Amino acid sequence: MLRHSILDHLKGIAKSRENHVLSLIERMQVRTVDFSTDRFLRNSLDKIVRGGTFNYSTAIRLNRYLSMNKLPLSHHLIAAAIVDRYGKVVSSTNERLVGKDISGQDLFIQGIGKSRGETYVGQPLYSSDLNAYCICISAPIISRQGTEKHGIIMNAYSLSSLNEVTKNRIGLGESGEVYLVSRDKLIFTESRFAEDTLLKRVVDTEPVRKIAEHGKAMVGIYRDYRGMRVVGASANISEYGWILLAEIDEAEAFAPLKTLSIVVLVFGLVGAGAVTSLGIHFAISMSMPIRDLINATGRLAAGDMDYRVKITREDEIGVLARNFNYG
Description:
Elements: H1 2-36, H2 39-49, H3 56-70, E1 77-84, E2 89-92, H4 106-112, E3 120-121, E4 125-127, E5 132-142, E6 149-158, H5 160-166, E7 177-181, H6 206-214, E8 219-223, E9 229-237, E10 242-249, H7 250-253, H8 255-301, H9 316-326
C-alpha cells in the first residue's frame, strides 16, 4: 500500500504540473490572439503592405506601438514581431528581427495557415537575434474586411516562464525534480542537478521512449538522464509534442519502506524472543513435575512406600501426582 501511495503521489504531481504548463501556454496563446486582432496593428500592417510598397513611417510607428503598448503587458514576453504575407518581418520590438525572411519556418507556415483565433506554438529554441531561449507563438492577422490574411503576429516568450512551474518542488523531497523534454528529447527547463542543460542534454529514458513511440505515459522505476534509479511519472503534453517528468531518487522515495522493514524486523525479533522464552518456560514447567513423578516411581520400586510427590499443579499432571500419592 505504501509503494502504491508513493507512485500515486508522483502521478498526481505530474498531472498537477502538466495542468500548470497548459494553463501558462494558454495564457500566452490568448495574448497572441489578442495582439492579432488589435485594430491599430491590423490597420498599420494594411498600410505597410498596401500597393506592394513598404511604408517606413508606418513601420516605425508600429515598432513604437509594439514596444510601448504590447511588450510591457507580460514580463515573459521578450519580443513581438509583425510578419507580412510573404514571410518578411516588417516590424518588431527587436530591430535585429526587422527585414528577416522567415517564410520557410514552421512558425510562419503553420501560423499563416491558422484560422481567426487560432495559434501555432513552436518548439523551444535558442534565438541568436534575441540572445535568449524562447518559445514563439504565432497567429494570423486578418484584414479589416475579414477576407484575407495580411500576415502573422509572432510573440517570443522566455523559456524561464516554464521554470516557474517546474521549480515548484513541493512534495518532491531533497532529490525530486520536474522537467520538460521536447519532441527532440532535449531538456528545455532548468535541471536541479546539472548546469547548462537547456536544449543540450538528451533524455532517452524509458518513459520518454514510451511516449515518443506509443504516446503512453508511465509510472514506475527506471534510470533517469543522470543514470540514477528514480521513481517517476510522465505526462504526455501531446498538443505541443512535449513530455513532462516528475521524479524522485529511488532511495529517498522508498525510505519509508526501509524504515517499515526495520520496524517489522525489530518487532519480529522481539516476538520471536518472546515466543522462545514462553516455550522454554512451558517446557521447564512441564518437565519438572514429570521428573518428580519419574523419581517417585523409582523410589517406590526400591521399596520406599512412604514417599509422596509434591502436588503443585491442578492440571492433568497434578491429578496424576495425587493418584500416585493416594492410589
